[in-house]
Design goal:
By secondary structure, the chain is mainly alpha-helical. It contains 26 helices and seven strands. Among the domains are: 189-314, no CATH class; 337-505, no CATH class; 515-608, Rossmann fold (3-Layer(aba) Sandwich), CATH 3.40.50. It has helices at 8-28, 36-57, 59-62, 65-72, 81-96, 101-113, 115-128, 130-140, 144-150, 156-172, 177-191, 200-215, 220-247, 250-255, 262-281, 286-309, 317-329, 352-360, 363-382, 397-414, 431-454, 463-484, 498-505, 520-526, 540-548, 577-587; strands at 336-338, 341-343, 532-535, 557-558, 567-571, 594-598, 601-608. Strands 4-3-5-7-6 form a five-stranded mixed β-sheet. A two-stranded antiparallel ribbon has the order 1-2. Helix 2 (36-57) runs antiparallel to helix 4 and helix 21 packs antiparallel against helix 22. Keywords: Cell membrane, Glycosyltransferase, Membrane, Transferase, Transmembrane, Transmembrane helix. It is found in: Cell membrane.
């Protein structure tokens, strides 16, 4: 389990992959509609950008809590790293340089999403060879739902990129102590991106402790210092627990958490203790030190960076952080259509995440993912027995690290009490690691085929096998992506039978309202001047964004009911069927005038009030 540095050629390839992904996303984003969440983030980003204007104009006023709350209170259920970048990008590229408004917001999201192929290549190449790295990198954005989400100024793809970056820094830290500090910085930025990243220490810390334990074998001085390091964390945890009990529970514990309080003193003690213990450990055993630095860095730098990145926390960090955590711990359950069942609340099906992944990831990519993961698990099981251990290569700790990261997000969302909605975006952090395992499986297959063919043609180059295999697996995914673009939330795989098959199975047709772009040209052409338009599932912010980005006529007016509308665009949702029935009642007709149909499957249906 060592983290080797990338070669010069690998670094150049990673940069090229980042540029390719960024350019591809930028060049195609104009066709992608605005999801409900995205337009909310647009509005929040503009508010945050206004605070930076105030900061330049009146710094003293900007740092007051009143000014901060005015600018940062909106959408404070999410951290603000990405929304801040969206706002600053809009300030620079739209307000300053005249770039299209939505594009200016989305540029930071493209930059973050483009990190995933680059990091997949670096990590995959280092672990399983460049063939595996190239496959993992090239395949990631060919998954239609992943490409769609990469186009959006949202958080799901950025947090997947940050999760991958934290893991890469953690792995590199095993060879270079500086990467351990970077792991802490990356973790702070990850939790500043989205709350998913809070699970990362629970994933990485066991590997760090195992690495430190094995590296300290035969070095009693190092083993003693390792125990002290673990004891420091355990002691601080016990002290916090006793303080919680002594103060009488959560409300009092939260109220007493001040700058000058035992709570803060314990954290400062943890930080100082980590630095002192690691400096004492370094001369005794550098490998043990390198294993523990990421743990200390995440524990200390993570909370500090999270606090610093979010002005809304500056004057009331404990209360506002507690509200944020409580919001996500008790998140709403949204209705969701799955295999003919309208799921409105828990318990949700245990197999949901696996089935949904199988039905949405192109089959030519899903198959090697399954093959790569099963091969890893199979090697681990066979290596447990002395009778079968010689049959396989025993998985390394790094193999286990990749495997655990591949399933963590999937297992979290699979819990029957966790809200199940949003398609596949909530377990995106697992997908790069599944892609790396798929790359490993493809690389092994290519090598075995090449070895077989070389018995007949000894001069056959390896790329003569790799290129056709890559084409066989990647081209179907590319065709599927092009076929469904820009309506990514409707993408279903060959296992589902495509969109018609998924509709027959009783799966969610689409969501997030972005498909309305398919009927906006008709509305622009046929709506009378000043027409009242009800775009079902499109919120007021999205309506405004369609107009200010030139996608919807500025004279039409948004209304909130079919009874007030001249035109209704109904987004086909099983849980909202009554909206279509209300439209029939309001308009006195059941005949649509147009619609968006993908492979003859209705997505958006448009009705016009008869004159």
């Amino acid at each position: 389990m060592t983290g080797r540095a990338a070669t010069r050629e690998e670094k150049l390839a990673a940069i090229a992959l980042w540029v390719l992904a960024f350019v591809a996303l930028w060049s195609t984003e104009a066709a992608v509609g605005f999801t409900r969440d995205e337009s909310v983030y647009f509005a929040a980003a503009e508010g945050y950008a206004s605070w930076f204007r105030l900061l330049v104009r009146a710094p003293a006023q900007a740092f007051t809590d009143d000014a901060i709350v005015r600018a940062w209170d909106y959408n404070h259920e999410h951290p603000v790293l990405m929304k801040t970048l969206f706002g600053l990008s809009h300030l620079l590229f739209h307000d300053g340089l005249g770039l299209r408004s939505a594009t200016a917001f989305r540029l930071p999201a493209f930059a973050m999403a483009a990190l995933v192929p680059a990091l997949c290549f670096l990590l995959g190449s280092a672990l399983y060879g460049r063939t595996a790295g190239w496959f993992a990198a090239l395949s990631f954005l060919l998954v239609p739902r992943q490409y769609f989400n990469a186009e959006l100024a949202c958080f799901d793809m950025p947090v997947a990129a940050m999760w991958l970056l934290v893991m890469y820094c953690f792995w590199r830290a095993l060879e270079d102590t500086r990467w351990g500090v970077l792991c802490g910085v990356a973790f702070g930025l990850a939790i500043a991106t989205k709350h998913n990243a809070l699970f990362l220490p629970f994933v990485l810390t066991p590997f760090a402790l195992w690495r430190a334990w094995t590296a300290s074998e035969g070095i009693p001085e190092a083993r003693v210092r390792l125990v002290r390091f673990v004891g420091l964390f355990a002691s601080v945890a016990v002290l916090y627990g006793l303080l919680f009990v002594f103060l009488g529970g959560g409300a009092a514990f939260q109220k007493k958490f001040l700058l000058l309080s035992p709570h803060t003193l314990f954290f400062v003690g943890l930080a100082v203790g980590c630095v002192w213990l690691l400096r004492d450990l370094r001369p005794v055993s550098l490998p043990v030190t390198r294993a523990l630095v990421p743990v200390a860095a995440m524990a200390v730098l993570g909370p500090v960076l999270f606090y610093l990145h979010w002005p809304y926390l500056w004057h009331a960090p404990v209360d506002r952080t507690a509200w944020y955590l409580a919001f996500h711990a008790t998140h709403n359950h949204y209705a969701w259509f799955y295999l003919g069942t309208l799921m409105r609340g828990p318990p949700f099906p245990l197999t949901y995440v696996v089935v949904k992944t199988a039905l949405t990831v192109p089959t030519s990519l899903f198959a090697p993912m399954v093959t790569g993961f099963i091969a890893l698990v199979g090697r681990a099981l066979l290596s447990l027995s002395a009778r079968t251990r010689d049959w396989v290569r025993m998985p390394t700790a790094t193999d286990a690290l990749v495997g655990v990261n591949a399933v963590t997000s999937i297992l979290v969302i699979s819990h029957p009490q966790v809200p199940h909605f949003g398609g596949v975006k909530h377990w995106f952090p697992s997908m790069p690691f599944l892609g790396i395992l798929a790359g490993a499986a493809v690389a092994r297959g290519c090598f075995a085929l090449w070895e077989l063919l070389k018995t007949r043609r000894p001069s056959l180059p390896s790329f003569a096998v790799t290129v056709p295999v890559f084409a066989l697996l990647l081209v179907p995914a590319l065709l599927g992506l092009v076929r469904v673009f820009p309506y990514g939330t409707a993408a279903y795989s060959e296992l589902a039978g495509g969109l018609p098959g998924a509709a027959t199975l009783g799966m969610q047709r689409q969501f997030w309202s972005s498909h309305v772009t398919g009927v906006l040209p008709w509305i622009n052409e046929h709506a009378k001047p000043g027409a009242r338009v009800y775009l079902h599932e499109v919120n007021g912010f999205s309506f405004r964004d369609y107009q200010r980005n030139g996608m919807l006529r500025t004279d039409v007016r948004a209304v909130n009911s079919p009874f007030d509308a001249d035109i209704v665009a109904y987004q086909y949702h099983q849980e909202f069927r009554e909206h279509e029935f209300l439209t029939w009642q309001a308009f006195g007709t059941r005949t649509p005038v147009t619609g968006l149909y993908l492979d003859e499957t209705p997505q958006v249906i448009v009705y016009q009030r008869p004159e």
